[in-house]
């Protein structure tokens, strides 16, 4: 079993060291095989946590640590974290002109494999065709430039295509449900659920309980004012849907 540990994590924006911390002591442990949901009001640090875990250089860790199986990854750059098995499903996926969807995904897969064990082209194409069919994506999306001209829903579905093809160990999924209609939400959720297994773990950031009707998390956390203030089982998401976040105060609950 592999373990991701976040210990007393404090984070600032690198270009604004005089500004207050965004994360103010986050403690969180995720084991392989688990799916965790992270909920909470806007502007309280959820996306910052995902970006920091992925190694976005915009953020600097001012205190605390991030450990994978006991080894710190705080100084590890983004590409090394990706090779270690980290994947970020972005809230706002970037558009890259001149690189096709298929080219990008194959390059990402091969970057995690030795030079003498690159994925054969026909194996890759067969897997890509099957996964796109599972996600009900038209075949021509493989040959379109990465996210270029994609609708919001297509971009989110494309993030799940990348997830299913790359098969990371640690998936950080930031609001993959935003902008999706109910049919697209089911398809995206089915894609995430198909990844469940002993070698996979995910931290899913969402505002809405409806996603968790389709992806049942093992643990639900609530973040407010840069801290995790409450942790519980799947029922916590249902409670929050009824009560909202106003009654929660930073410092309540536990990290």
Automatic annotation (TrEMBL):
Taxonomic superkingdom: Bacteria
Gene name of this polypeptide: sufC
Family affiliation: Belongs to the ABC transporter superfamily. Ycf16 family.
Xref: PROSITE patterns: ABC_TRANSPORTER_1, ABC_TRANSPORTER_2
Taxonomic placement: Bacteria, Bacillati, Bacillota, Bacilli, Lactobacillales
Name recorded for this polypeptide: Fe-S cluster assembly ATPase SufC
Every ABC transporter domain range: 4-250
Keywords for the protein's UniProt record, in alphabetical order: ATP-binding, Nucleotide-binding
């Amino acid at each position: 079993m592999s373990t991701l540990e976040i210990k007393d994590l404090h984070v600032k924006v690198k270009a604004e060291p005089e500004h207050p911390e965004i994360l103010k002591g986050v403690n969180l442990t995720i084991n392989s095989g688990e799916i965790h949901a992270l909920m909470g009001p806007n502007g309280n640090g959820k996306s910052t946590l995902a970006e920091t875990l992925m190694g976005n250089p915009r953020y600097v860790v001012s205190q605390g640590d991030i450990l994978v199986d006991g080894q710190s990854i705080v100084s590890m750059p983004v590409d090394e974290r990706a090779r270690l098995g980290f994947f970020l499903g972005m809230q706002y996926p970037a558009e890259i002109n001149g690189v096709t969807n298929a080219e990008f995904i194959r390059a990402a897969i091969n970057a995690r494999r030795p030079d003498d064990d690159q994925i054969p082209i026909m194996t890759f194409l067969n897997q890509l065709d099957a996964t796109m069919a599972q996600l009900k994506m038209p075949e021509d999306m493989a040959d379109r430039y990465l996210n270029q001209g994609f609708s919001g829903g297509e971009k989110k579905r494309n993030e799940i295509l990348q997830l299913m093809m790359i098969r990371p160990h640690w998936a950080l999924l930031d609001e993959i449900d935003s902008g999706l209609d109910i049919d697209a939400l089911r398809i995206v959720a089915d894609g995430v659920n198909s990844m469940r297994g002993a070698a996979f773990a995910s931290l899913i950031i969402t505002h809405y309980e409806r996603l968790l009707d389709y992806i049942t998390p093992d643990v639900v956390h609530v973040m407010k004012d840069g801290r995790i203030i409450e942790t519980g089982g799947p029922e916590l998401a249902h409670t929050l849907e009824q009560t909202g976040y106003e009654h929660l105060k930073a410092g309540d609950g536990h990290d």
